[in-house]
Design goal:
CATH topology: TIM Barrel
Shape: globular
Organism: Caballeronia concitans
GO molecular function: oxidoreductase activity
Keywords: Oxidoreductase
Protein name: Aldo/keto reductase
CATH superfamily: NADP-dependent oxidoreductase domain
Helix content: 25-40%
InterPro entries: Aldo-Keto_reductase, NAD(P)_OxRdtase_dom_sf, NADP_OxRdtase_dom
Amino acid sequence: MEQRQLGKTGPQSSAIGLGCMGMSGMYGPSDRAESIATIHAALEAGVTLLDTGDFYGMGHNELLIAEALRTAPPSRRDAAILSVKFGGMRDPAGNWTDYDARPNAVKNFLAYTLQRLGVEHIDIYRPARLDPKVPIEDTVGAIADMIRAGYVRHVGLSEVGAATIRKAAQVHAICDLQIEYSLISRGIEDAILPACRALGIGISAYGVLSRGLISGHWTKESAQAGDWRAHSPRFQDGHVERNLALVDALAQIAQSKGVSVAQIAIAWVLAQGDDIVPVIGARRRDRLSESLGALDVTLSADELAAIESAVPKGAASGDRYAAVQMAHLDSEKH
């Protein structure tokens, strides 16, 4: 497995990470045994970065990963890099209620995460969003306290803008920024990516297949009950048709190269810099295998130009989140 450095101060990671969110109901029902088998297959293939959030399934995802690690070979288990987001508040019905990144909340969330995952430390700990009520310096300072206490190895950030990144980096070295980046979500290229590179901060890119939209597999008919994409603008009537037309254009390039649409999309992200680690959300072993096949796809300058022509920057129809969520994203503030 190809390795990439997660920022100048972070760990060596597999070139592709596994995002485990979808294994805890966010995209509709998932199969527990298949989820665990997929984590095992990822570890066996050399994937080391496992990404989760303590609010995914209200702890379900961390417990799932804990079970997978307990039943994995010790050498694979020990190689795993656990990346955990915190801050999202939910009620017993599963509704999102608030966000909390106060220093005491940071330490409280971490205590529960360590217990659920059954580990003594978290490799990368990150606020899932910027808490508008709490200076980022206070949140990062609390994580730094936990690093000094031995409970965390590295500070990460998620979905914050360039100004916030610079403030955070003055408090403690930042390992990586987790943020959406794909062929149809390229907003980070303007200010966020340059800021990260200037500071030596890596990118762990989620949404590289735009939640399946540009995977070549998603159709309107494939949507399941409980799938939050039903509320995502890019999947709405009036937008989704235009977005699937982009997928059709991408499919022609993939077909001529003898690879899948998903592999082209992931390979494109991989080609944007060796400081970027795509985090793929495979919930099944076949999807995992397909995604890892992107590591064998080399894109020439002509092919990259053809992809750019098929899916130009800004071509996506609709925002990546609903309006109320977009309004809370520090990464979208200019």
